[in-house]
Specification:
With about 550 residues, this protein is an alpha+beta fold. The protein has 3 domains: about 130 residues, no CATH class; about 110 residues, Beta Barrel (Butyryl-CoA Dehydrogenase, subunit A, domain 2); about 250 residues, Butyryl-CoA Dehydrogenase, subunit A, domain 3 (Up-down Bundle). Helices cover about 50% and strands about 15% of the residues. It has 19 helices and 11 strands. Strands 3, 4, 5, 6, 7, 8 and 9 form a 7-stranded mixed β-sheet that branches. Strands 1-2 form a two-stranded antiparallel ribbon. It has a two-stranded antiparallel ribbon with strand order 10-11. The chain is globular, with a radius of gyration of 24 Å. The structure holds flavin-adenine dinucleotide. Flavin-adenine dinucleotide binds next to strand 3, strand 5, helix 13 and helix 14.
């Protein structure tokens, strides 16, 4: 080769590493969350997730987007989506490890932490296939509202078998479920749903209805069934809409088209029209929101775990690059300004994991008030931080970070979606205020969580006092500043969780970088990197 083609100072691709074993913070949370029994599975999945082959599957599943087939060659309506084999392989890997079901089949303590850790690894390879596994996992508490539906569906939904065939449920070895609430005229405000359900007989819980209307966003449209909302005379109600009818005919809905998404493209999302489609009522008519919210609460939990995973992978990519790339005579990781940026990414990622895992422990411990309040706070804040972190990590890699052959481009395009779906940012903040107003135990839970860490850091102690003053005497105008409040709560909670359970140096760095009165700045890196915190860069990866 001529000398001009010699490639130097280009970091090697980050492949064939164990995504789990090289993540000390995740391992600490798994141990703390009574999930050490899952270590062999986590290490095995971590090795797969970091393997060159599986990383390539992630790229292929996004390069070759799902294709919609409305009709078969003979002109019959089939409403099928064809996925690339890489997507199917990723789905198979996730389902075989129980990412769609583990807490419902595993009776040991720590099952939500173990599953959360697996999901955290899953999103570091590829996020699109996380959508169907999340919805399938989250459907169980809503299904269980109607015991006969749960007993018919749960064995297939929780089976660790990925069976993508488009055949009636009775012929399948494993089932997946989706969720369809959003309509054209309103997504956040589901009360605006116009899709209507008429009873076939007398109606009532568990009975068959006929549903007519539309759904504007239906992700994973090849699911075997969908948990949906539709209006009945008693009000908005929750239904299970199967893909196939029990008599072996296709149910009466059509997919209109696939959404042309900017991210999450390995996973299809469709628009659906329903024409007297058969669906079974879950719970009492008119209690649709109360029943589907059991599912939505878990998909929101998954949004925070998934976004924490995206931030972790972004930080890892940035660290790897900066260790292997030099500029102006020194490795980037040794340059003081870059150290500030990297420290910020690492600390943000670890704080996101801490809050998500605290919520997972609350699920395991059935701490209902903690689950209720940590979910919207964490969903809002962690998902909102992800675009900033992925953009900054991309910049650490420089021009190559912007290229589609690097993981960062995909992480960045993926980053906003978790903030939008399952209740957008404002909706999460309003939900926090609603919980405080209607369920006073959530105020006590947050205060207890914050006070427990306050004695460990004077900055947090000051912040907790300020928060206490407002939470115990809420102002009628608090809705105007809801975002600011939820942000403060999230940061204080992250500080408290890290101080109590996390790595002490990470906790100290987080308090210095994020609590008011210290180095709090708008962009990553503004707080610099105190040399005392430099070991955190080695610890991170
Ligand atoms: C890729 C993708 C896949 C999706 N898949 C599904 C799916 O499978 N099933 C499904 O049901 N939905 C799905 N959705 C839809 C998603 O859940 C909705 O887009 C989301 O809930 C917001 O609803 P909307 O789009 O109607 O926006 P709107 O409800 O119109 O909201 C627009 C903005 O207004 C804000 N807002 C709303 N109310 C208030 C208020 N009271 N005060 C202040 N601000 C407010 C919101 O936070 C948001 O920022 C998907 C969306 C995307 C992007």
């Amino acid at each position: 080769m001529p000398r001009s083609h010699e490639v130097v100072n280009q970091p090697p691709s980050l492949v064939d590493y164990n995504v789990y074993l090289r993540d000390p913070a995740l391992r600490e949370w798994v141990a703390l969350g009574d999930a050490a029994w899952a270590e062999p599975d986590l290490a095995e999945y971590g090795a797969l997730a970091g393997s060159e082959e599986v990383i390539r599957l992630g790229f292929e599943a996004n390069e070759f987007r799902p294709v919609f087939e409305s009709h078969d060659p003979q002109g019959r309506r089939v409403d099928r989506v064809r996925y690339h084999p890489a997507y199917h392989r990723l789905m198979e890997m996730a389902i075989e490890r129980g990412i769609h079901s583990l807490p419902w089949t595993e009776e040991r303590p720590g099952a939500h932490v173990a599953r959360g850790a697996l999901e955290y690894l899953q999103h570091q390879v590829e996020s699109g296939h996380g959508c169907p596994t999340t919805m399938t996992f989250a459907s169980i508490p809503t299904l269980r509202v109607q015991p006969e539906l749960a007993s018919a569906w749960e064995p297939g939904v929780t089976a660790r078998v990925y069976d993508p065939r488009d055949v009636p449920m009775a012929d399948k070895h494993g089932l997946t479920l989706g969720m369809a609430m959003t309509e054209k005229q309103g997504g956040s405000d589901v009360r605006a749903n116009s899709t209507a359900a008429e009873p076939v007989g007398n109606g009532g819980p568990g009975e068959e209805y006929r549903v007519t209307g539309h759904k504007f966003f239906v992700s994973a449209p090849m699911s075997d069934g969908f948990v949906i909302l539709a209006q009945t005379p008693a009000g908005l109600s929750c239904f299970l809409l199967p893909r196939w009818r029990a008599d072996g005919t296709r149910n009466a809905f059509e997919l209109q088209r696939l959404k042309n998404k900017m991210g999450n493209v390995s996973n299809a999302s469709a628009e659906m029209e329903l024409f007297d489609a058969s669906a079974w009522l879950i719970g009492e008519p008119g209690r649709g929101v109360a029943n589907i919210i059991r599912m939505v609460a878990l998909t929101r939990f998954d949004c925070m775990v998934g976004s924490a995973g995206l931030m972790r992978q972004a930080a890892v990519q940035a660290l790897h690059h900066c260790r292997h790339r030099s500029a102006f005579g020194r490795a980037l990781v040794e340059q003081p300004v870059m150290q500030g940026v990297l420290l910020d990414l690492v600390v943000e990622s670890e704080a996101a994991l801490a809050l998500a895992m605290r919520a997972a422990r609350a699920l395991d411990g059935d701490e209902q008030a903690a689950v209720r309040i940590l979910t919207p706070i964490g969903k809002y804040w962690i998902c909102k931080r992800t675009p900033t972190v992925t953009a900054e990590a991309m910049e650490c890699i420089g021009g190559s970070g912007f290229m589609e052959d690097r993981l960062l481009a995909r992480l960045y395009r993926e980053a906003p979606v978790n903030a939008i779906w399952e209740g957008s940012g404002n909706v999460q903040c309003l939900d926090v205020l609603r919980a405080f107003a209607r369920e006073p135990e959530t105020v006590e839970t947050v205060l207890a969580e914050l006070r427990a860490g306050a004695s460990l850091d004077t900055g947090l102690e000051r912040e907790v006092k300020a928060i206490e003053a407002v939470l115990t005497r809420p102002d009628a105008g608090i809705e105007r500043v809801a975002r600011g409040w939820v942000e403060r709560l999230a940061i204080a909670l992250q500080a408290s969780v890290l101080l109590r359970f996390g790595n002490p140096l990470t906790a100290e760095a987080f308090c210095r970088l994020r609590l008011p009165g210290t180095h709090r700045t708008l962009l990553p890196g503004g707080g610099g990197c105190d040399p005392r915190f430099a070991p955190l860069l080695d610890r991170a990866f």
